[in-house]
What we know:
Helix 3 runs antiparallel to helix 4. Among the domains are: 32-76, no CATH class; 82-214, Band 7 domain (Tetrahydropterin Synthase, Chain A); 276-308. Strand 2 (44-50) and strand 3 (53-58) form a beta hairpin. It is built from 6 helices and 9 strands. Strands 6, 7, 8 and 9 form a 4-stranded antiparallel β-sheet that branches. By secondary structure, it is an alpha+beta fold.
Amino acid sequence: MTTLVKPSSLVQAIALSFRFVQVAVVVLAALWLVAGVKQVPADQHAVVLRFGAVHREQAAGLVLSWPRPIEEVVLLPGPQKQHSLRSTRFTDAPAGGASAMLAGFALTGGANLVHVDATLYYRVVRPLEWLVVRERADAILARLLESAVLAACGSRPIEAVVVVRGAEATVAPPPGSAERREQMSLTVAAAVKQGADALGLGIEVGRVDLTAKVPESVRAAFEGSVLADAEAANEIAGARTDATRIRQAAQDIRTRSLQEAQAQARERLARAHQDTDRIVALTAVGFAPAARRLALVRIYHERIEKILKQPGGLTVIDAGAPLRLIVPGE
């Protein structure tokens, strides 16, 4: 006859514990697997790293990957998102110390000191390159922006860098000032883009906004000087316009006088040719002497008739008469 032995309470406790551990392992395994599922927002980009190396890229949407430590999903900015970086190095001078006297300024081509507020706008277009430098990207871009601003300011006069905004600024700034400042922003953006491409930052530079101003202690004097230069430039431009108008009027008078003189000369020459053509024709070779004399007599009678009709009165004296004195009477 077989005797059934009931398990002790210790064995029952151990079995229950094993079941609990199994359930816990299954739950933890499920949670571990679920941890590899991530949602990538629309303005971001995902890079999946497997054991620290780049495995694949994925745009916005649902990402399925092995959880850590096998794979890691790194979210990076997408190309649709625009970032901004502001440089405050040239905005305000720090206080204290002789070594900080020139800090906070940029030097222009005319050896003038100005404050420059620079803001860089960019987008991440190559995520893998950005992944490598993302922790140092702000510092690198700040250095590139500051170097480009220094180079652009140093190659331009202060009038091409600073905008006059005084309350008394009733005179227009010098021609081309706005275009030169816009060109300066484009130059800085191009320099930053060139540096970013050379370093492989994986960004696309959108634009650079620059706002420059002179120190407050000399602002009024500077604006007065710039406005005085603008007034002088406007007066010079007006004088040049007047001189051009006067020169054009004189040129018109000269041209008209020359044309009139040439027309009168041509008319006189034509009349002289007309008056002498018949006489000149008599000197032609082969003209008979008798015919020449008859032609001269005919021409003489024609001309003398016109001459005699011009005076108001005429006194005729016979050349053969002995009388040689003419006494006017009533």
